[in-house]
Amino acid sequence: MSRLASGFHRLRRSPWEALWSALASCGLVLFSQLAVAMVPRLFPSLSLLAMLPIAGLVLLAAIVVGRLWRRFIGVAASAPLFVLFNILLLWGVYVFIIRRDTSSLLDMLINAECALLLWGLYRLLPLQEQFTPPSGYRIYCGLFDCRILSGDPGIVACDTSYLEEAGCKDFMEVIYSSEKLPTLSRVRQCNYCKAHVRSYDHHCPAFGTCIGQKNHRLFMALLTGFVVAESTYTMCSTKYITRRINSGTIRSENPVSLNMVISTMLFSILQVLWQIVFLMWHIYCICFNIKTDEWINWKKYPEFQMREQPQSESEVKFMNPYDKGMLCNIREFLKPK
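-> C-alpha cells emitted (337 positions)
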C-alpha cells in the first residue's frame, strides 16, 4: 500500500438521502433569511446599526432551530450547500432588486465576484459520496460536501512500515514524536474525521473537509473572496436604501423587497465581521508559519516545547521551530505543494 493516500475509496449515498439533505439545506437558508427579514418588519424605528445585534441573535436562534430539525425529520442539512444557497440568494436579491440603482462598474464587479465564488465552490468538486481513506478511517462528506482540488487535503495513510521505522506501537505516537520520522513532520490527526493530514490546520464545517497542505491556499482564496463579495454587496444595498430615503420613495417601495434588502445586508455585515477576524488570524498564521491546530494544541507536540533547563522540571515555554522569517514563511505558503 502506498504511504501517502493518493485517493479515497468511494461509497455512494442513497439518492433519496442526497435529495432530502439538499432540501433541508435550502429550507434552512430560507428559514434563517426570513427570520432575519422579520427584524426590520418588527422594529422599523430602529437604525440599521441597532438592528445588527438583534439580527445576529435571530440568525443564531434560527440556525439552532434548524439543527433541531434533524431530530424530528432525521435529515441533516449540508453545510456546503447552506453556503451555496446563501450565495445564490444574495445574488438573486441583488439582480432582481438592487441592481437597477447600481452603477455599471459596480454591477460588473459584484457579478464577477459572485461568479468567481461559485467557480471556487465548483473547484471544490461537489460530491455525493462518502470517503474511506486507506488508513481505514471514514470521512463523511454527504451530498455536495466538498473536497478541495483533488479531494485530498494531504491525507497520510496509516502504514505499518511507519511504525516499524519509528519503533512505535501506535501511529499517534509517531505523529506526536515526529523527530523520530522526519517524513511525517507536521502530520496531525483531525479530531472530527479521524484522518491524518499533512500540515493540518483545522476541519472546516462550511466546506465539509479538512484544511491541510494541498488545499490551504484555495481555502484562503475563497475566504478572501467571501469577504470582498459580501462587503461589496453591503455597499450596494446601503446605496439602494440611502437613495430610497433621500428620494422619499421608501414608503412606496414594496415592503417585501425592502425587508429582503435590509435582511440580506444585515446578514452580509454579520458574515463579514467574523470572516475578517478569521482571515486576519490565518494571515497571522501564514506569516509566522504555524497552524491553528498547532497553536491550540502546542503542548501535545514536543517540537513546540522548550525548557530553560532541559534536564530539569522547569516551566515549558512555547517555541516555533518552523518560523523562518515572515518573507520565507509567506514564500513557503505560496509555493505549490
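Residues 1-11, 125-150 have pLDDT under 50 and may be disordered.
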